[in-house]
Automatic annotation (TrEMBL):
It comes from the Bacteria. Gene3D superfamilies: TusA-like domain (3.30.110.40). SUPFAM superfamilies: SirA-like (SSF64307). This is TusA-related sulfurtransferase.
C-alpha cells in the first residue's frame, strides 16, 4: 500500500499513538493512506479497533520492535 503521509509514533505510550493517528487521518481524503510507525505494543489492538469502528482498511507488519501500520481512509 502506498502511503500518502507517514506518522512517527515511536517511543510514544498509549494513548498518544491513537491520538496522533486520529489527528493525521482528519487531514486525509477518503482513499488516502496513513503509514504509522509505533513501538507501543498496545497500538496494535488500539489501531485495529479504531480502524474497524471508523470503516477504514488496516494492514500491519512488525519489524523488530517497530510496528508498522497502513490505514486506508474509508
Amino acid at each position: 500500500m502506498e502511503s500518502t503521509k507517514v506518522l512517527d509514533a515511536k517511543g510514544l505510550a498509549c494513548p498518544m499513538p491513537i491520538v496522533k493517528t486520529k489527528k493525521a487521518m482528519n487531514e486525509l481524503e477518503a482513499g488516502q493512506v496513513l503509514e504509522i510507525h509505533a513501538t507501543d505494543k498496545g497500538a496494535k489492538n488500539d489501531l485495529a479497533a479504531w480502524a474497524k469502528s471508523g470503516g477504514h482498511e488496516l494492514l500491519h507488519t512488525e519489524e523488530g520492535d517497530v510496528f508498522k501500520f497502513w490505514i486506508k481512509k474509508g
